[in-house]
Every structure is written in structure tokens, then in C-alpha cells.
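quick q for whoever's on today - can somebody do inverse folding on this one?? i tried earlier but teh output was garbage lol. C-alpha cells:
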């Protein structure tokens, strides 16, 4: 169900403090906290003695003390003290997860720690560019499988119905989609030419009249998405067009962290190429984007229920080509990973 040798978002950076707290990623309970110098630690959230969560214990300097019998663990997960004296059992350790702090997010590696390479973390262009503005909101709890959100983010067509008052427009119903192959994931994109701007974007683009609009929907393995929106005056866009001086670009970054098979934590923010210091614009965009994502959340909650209780098979349409390709390749990666694990265990 899950690809383990991958980086997932564990939390916003401000969410992790010196207080012990539990997070759940890929069904695994994890105790996460900061060291005295601000560094990060993530340990299996279960003392190996009687499985009391370490997050129910106490932080002592840069170690964690179990709240039941005082077993104490260092940041590598090794037990450094236990009651009763004598030699510490070799099994007195917990798994330690590699962590990286980047882009205001804390990333966690869920697989073999020896394979964790920070260079594999999703790269975000313009994140520290002073010419680009940013808006973001709190993480959202989705009551659905993470792949349903990945499907959603490879589906430009749904905006015509789910987001009619924000991102949607009539041209999104029938304009053909292109699905090029990539090594990192799947892209679904299209240019919609000489169309009226969608309601959300009318508030922010810097020109009047119709536009040429790019919808670039990209999801990379295991569950990270870049949704790029480009709006340029009608007649200046398209695959062969030269972007106009008034072009508006919004890059929306979306990170889906599976909690369980039916729960997902969703992190998001947008970068824009206009008015970087306009706090009022950032607030408006954050609020409007959050409202649109709430529409997705409501739909996907019901889709999850429908899939769990269906009495007849669901069908696929031509517009599902991107999501289906993504799911097939991700499942092949999961199967390969499991086979390697099986062979190493023999």
C-alpha cells in the first residue's frame, strides 16, 4: 500500500518543539521532538519493554525517558539506562527515522535509513526568491486514502464541477489533456486558449480580458504534487507562445502524507510571481485556496465511503489516464521494494 523508501512530510517546522509528541505516518507511530540545539529527532513511539508510547514519557536533555519504568533512549534510539542494573539487553533500542528540515517543512524517511539521501527531497523553485510571494495554510486532515488525493491532483477536469466558483471554468470540461511520461511521476497538462479567467484568478492577474491558461498538474512518487497555473493575455500563450510581461504564475505545492489507509495529512503552499510583499494578497489567496481545498475534502470523503461500500465495480474514463498511470507505476515500485525486502530477509 505504501512506498517506504521515500521522503514524506512529517510536520510544519513550527509544529515540532521540545515537547514530545506523536505523529503517525504510513500507520507507524513516531515520537518526534527537538534537541536542545534545535535539531530534530524521530523515534519509534513504543518503549521495547512494555510498549508504552515514548511520547507519554519525559524529555531529559537530549534523551527520552519512558514514563513506565524509566528506560532512557538517546537520539539514535539506543537505550542508555534501564532499572535494575546489569547489562542492557541488546533489544533495548527503538528505530530512529532520518529527518531533514527544508522549505518550512520537516521531512521524514520511512524506509531503510542507509538509503536516505536528502538530495532526493522534492526541489522547490523560487522558495527563497525575494521576487516571489508565498501563501500557506495549516495542514488539512483528509478522511480518504492518499491516492484519491493524488488522483485529484492529476485531474484538471474536475475543477469545472467541484471548483466552479474558484478555479473552474467551462473550458475545463472538454479541452483535451496531454499526459507526457517522466521518470519522477506523471504530468497531465493542457493550454486553454482565449478563455475567460476563472473567478479565483480574476482577483490576482494583472490584465483585463480573456487569457490563455496553462493547467500543469504533476504528481511525483510517492505523493508530492506541483500544480502550475499560468495566465497570460489571450494570443500570447500556448506551447509555442512567448510569455507576456503581464504573465501571472502560481506554483502550488501539495504534499500528501499517508496516515493510515483511510486518512491523509495534506500540506500545501503557493508561490506567485507578483507582489511578493503584499500580506493582504497572501491572506486572500490562502483563504480562497483553503475554501477550494475544503471542496475537495468534502468530495473525497464521500468518494472514500463510496469505494469502501461499492456494490458494483467503478468505471474509468479517458480523463483518468494520468491517475491510472501514476497508480500503476507506484504499485510497481512498491512491489519491487517488497520483493527486495523479502529477499534480504531470507
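ok took a stab at it. sequence:
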Amino acid at each position: 500500500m505504501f512506498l517506504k523508501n521515500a521522503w514524506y512530510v512529517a510536520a510544519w517546522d513550527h509544529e515540532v518543539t521540545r515537547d514530545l509528541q506523536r505523529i503517525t505516518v504510513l500507520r507507524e507511530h513516531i515520537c518526534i521532538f527537538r534537541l536542545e540545539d534545535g535539531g530534530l529527532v524521530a523515534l519509534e513511539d513504543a518503549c521495547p519493554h512494555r510498549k508504552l508510547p515514548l511520547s507519554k514519557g519525559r524529555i531529559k536533555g537530549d534523551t527520552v525517558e519512558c514514563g513506565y519504568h524509566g528506560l532512557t533512549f538517546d537520539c539514535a534510539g539506543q537505550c542508555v539506562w534501564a532499572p535494575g542494573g546489569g547489562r542492557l539487553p541488546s533489544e533495548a533500542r527503538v528505530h530512529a527515522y532520518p529527518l531533514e528540515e527544508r522549505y518550512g517543512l520537516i521531512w521524514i524517511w520511512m524506509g531503510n535509513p542507509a538509503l536516505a539521501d536528502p538530495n532526493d527531497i522534492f526541489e522547490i523553485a523560487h522558495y527563497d526568491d525575494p521576487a516571489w510571494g508565498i501563501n500557506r495554510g495549516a495542514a488539512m486532515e483528509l478522511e480518504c486514502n492518499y491516492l484519491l488525493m493524488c488522483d485529484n491532483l492529476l485531474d484538471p477536469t474536475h475543477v469545472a464541477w467541484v471548483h466552479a466558483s474558484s478555479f473552474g471554468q467551462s473550458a475545463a470540461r472538454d479541452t483535451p489533456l496531454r499526459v507526457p511520461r517522466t521518470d519522477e511521476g506523471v504530468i497531465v497538462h493542457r493550454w486553454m486558449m482565449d478563455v475567460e479567467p476563472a473567478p479565483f484568478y480574476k482577483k490576482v492577474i494583472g490584465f483585463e480580458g480573456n487569457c490563455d491558461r496553462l493547467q500543469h498538474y504533476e504528481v511525483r512518487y510517492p505523493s508530492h504534487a506541483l500544480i502550475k497555473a499560468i495566465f497570460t493575455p489571450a494570443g500570447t500563450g500556448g506551447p509555442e507562445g512567448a510569455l507576456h510581461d503581464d504573465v501571472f504564475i502560481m506554483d502550488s505545492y501539495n504534499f500528501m502524507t499517508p496516515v493510515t489507509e483511510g486518512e491523509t495529512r495534506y500540506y500545501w503552499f503557493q508561490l506567485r510571481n507578483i507582489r511578493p510583499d503584499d500580506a493582504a494578497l497572501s491572506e486572500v489567496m490562502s483563504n480562497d485556496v483553503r475554501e477550494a481545498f475544503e471542496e475537495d475534502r468534502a468530495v473525497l470523503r464521500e468518494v472514500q465511503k463510496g469505494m469502501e461500500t461499492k456494490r458494483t465495480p467503478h468505471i474509468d474514463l479517458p480523463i483518468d489516464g494520468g491517475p491510472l498511470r501514476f497508480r500503476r507505476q507506484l504499485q510497481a515500485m512498491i512491489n519491487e521494494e517488497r520483493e527486495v525486502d523479502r529477499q534480504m530477509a531470507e
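fwiw The chain has two domains: 7-119, 122-332. also The chain is about 20% helix and 30% strand. so keep that in mind when u check it
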